[in-house]
Batch of 2 targets.
Target 1
Amino acid sequence: MIDLANITLTYPDGTSRITAVDDASLRVNAGTVVGLTGPSGSGKSSLLAVASTLISPDRGTVTIDGINATNLSLTELAELRRTKVGLVFQQSNLLASLTAYEQLLVMNELTTQRSRRAARAATRNRARNLLDAVGLAADADKRPAQLSGGQRQRVNIARALMHEPSVLIVDEPTSALDQERGTQIIDLLLRLTGEHATATLLVTHDQRILPRLTSTYAMVDGHLALVRDADLVA
Ligand code: ADP
Ligand code: ADP
């Protein structure tokens, strides 16, 4: 579960400060996908950075899976991210020299401290299962250059799920894809969110996606408002 309560975030701007997020509150329950939309510069990326605990807000409370992140130390925050938060960015962050399968293994080395032999077998198993779940079982040994944009995004999603996060933060996963591939990625995220019971927060500019999500928030000039599906369909 992600719970953002009364979040305000400002950045330094010369001698004053610019307010990127203004008193925003939002909740994402386990097993649901909540959309976040709004024009460029409205504060979506800033809110995602707060939700993923990469940036601490000026005011407000961030609760991840029941843990209040507000007063944690930097070390504790890193631990919270490492164990609870999965990130999928617009740009693929895959390493050029590694195969799809290796991208997942590397992620787990970085994110868990489970020890040795049995853990390694479990990690390999999980990587294979996740590649299978995203439809890439046959492409496990391909490097990013040998994969299409849609396939690379699938690797990103599989990798983000390696450490069994309870929260999945996804930033415009379909922006580089055509409509059909984009729809497939959204279908995949909806299915995996249900299967893994993650609380998924999804930033998207794609209006066609929004009616399929559990609920949608719109951001304008740092202000966040809940948009009902009925309003979108009308
Ligand atoms: P969006 O993701 O909706 O495009 P952002 O969260 O990136 O919006 O930006 C919100 C506002 O905060 C914009 O006015 C932007 O210029 C400003 N902003 C974003 N990041 C920074 C930063 N690191 N330093 C200063 N201002 C920033
Ligand atoms: P997706 O629906 O995931 O985007 P595509 O239908 O575009 O996948 O790709 C299907 C097949 O084409 C895959 O076997 C993939 O390896 C191959 N392929 C797609 N794009 C490229 C590329 N840029 N370089 C090499 N192979 C590619």
Note: The CA atoms of residues 194 and 212 lie 14 Å apart.
Target 2
Amino acid sequence: CSAHVAANASSFSSCLASHGVSNFSLPASPSYNTTLNFSIRNLRFTLPDVTRPAAIVLPVSKEDLRRAILCARDSSFAIRVRSGGHSYEGLSYTTENHIRFVVIDLMNLDRVQVDPVSATTWAETGATLGELYYAVGRSSRSLAFSGGSCSTIGLGGVVSGGGFGLLSRRFGLAADNVLDAVLINPNGRVLDRHSMGKDVFWAIRGGGGGSWGVVYAWKLRLVPAPHNVTVFIIDRTGPIEYIAGLVHTWQLVGPNLPDEFYLSLYFPTGSSDGNVSISFEGQVLGTKQHTLSVLSQSFPMLDVSESDLSEMSWVESTAKFANVDKVSDLLNRQPGTNSYTKSKSDYVKAPISRQDMVEIVRYMSARPPGSIILDPYGGAMARIESGTTPFPHRAGILYGIQYTVYWGQSDQAKADEYIRWLRSLYAYMTPHVSKGPRGAYVNYLDLDLGANNWTHPMGGSSMEAVLHARSLWGAAYFGNNFDQLVKAKMTIDPENVFNNAQSIPPLY
Ligand code: FDA
């Protein structure tokens, strides 16, 4: 691994300059801190003990990107690639074991070209979901894209790891809608789906970012949207037993609704007055009347009324769920505020009993501040075979859970306490969630599951490193698809140039 040789910052900057790449920042540059911090979404990775990059390069073209990869390799730096910077464990702008590295930040590669006639788009991977949604919405009211809800997520990371969103029960993940890609391999070669080969094209669509090279652009399938969709956010507050009853019923309803329905559950933790609050967030590819008639029959306890519902264009709905004021705000890469966060994820295969749900809601409603989100699967998610892409959580999954704690600067002293609470909740959930292996979502990266150790890879044997990765996070994120990912890694990056704490290890 090149990081064993002393990395050299001046040879890196002269290499860039001699190839006409001028947009980069070194620690002494006035722009360095602003550029580094611009896309840090988790303040845990701004703390003083976190190793910072020796340089940040901001390519403005595919050729700049290729040069940045080659110069980093020539100067013996590890490479971290950053798109939207939302990695839960900061893997796009940090390294383990103080390995010297540079960040290639794709934020200037954000062009999105929509072709409404073929219902496809080519998007550079530095674009955010918001930029993509905006471009799709401008080109046609009857097209949409199936991605996530947060508009500032980068296409580089979200599509690489899957990309679950409000349309996934109808059209699958973002990764299920990739038609082609431009990948720059560790030797700077530019590959498309044919020249990269079947195994690699399969791996980049859900096998997680940072393992394969740099995806410069995605060709994505757009999906049909009705003139208006129906959206709602319904808040319910009450005693634990009442809320547990709603959540218990939701488990039976949410994953079994018709495909055009998305009904998720958002559970802010940290209520203190004995009552608990939850929100049901919904989007339906259909009218208010259709929404009312289906929900009043399938989920009478929710008691939806027409005044809870609004009709709007699909792109307006993306602004609503991204929590921004207007459609043009989807172009804003900077969210309101950042916080310190830690997240974990789970999958549920069998409904949790009502009695257990009461105890779970009681546990969740205890402090600290954070949120728990239950995402309904079923529909197209269940119909796509679990080996079609590396994302294995398909038929048999009722819903995914994301647990998060977050805090601000003033609560920094309580960080360990909050994270301990999150881990204890995760332990508490063990009997109720998937097992053998306990599943997790690679886009909700969680280093508690384990990490690669490239400096001492389990005594040096690549087989041991692969077994280590498979038994800890590999099986949780990818199930039976993990070995196929190792095979793809050996094809595209046998020297492990693109690595991180949970990247796919090569076997050599
Ligand atoms: P970042 O830039 O941090 O990249 C993540 C990983 O991908 C890193 O390993 C990075 O090196 C690699 N990478 C980035 N660009 C690459 C490229 N061009 N080629 C190769 N590798 C590349 N998920 C979801 O499915 N649905 C959702 O609704 C949400 N919502 C959500 C909200 C919020 C507030 C957060 C913080 C996160 C989510 N997520 C999510 C999770 C999100 O999908 C996940 O964190 C993605 O990896 C983020 O992608 P970014 O490009 O922003 O991150």
Note: The chain has a mean pLDDT of 95.
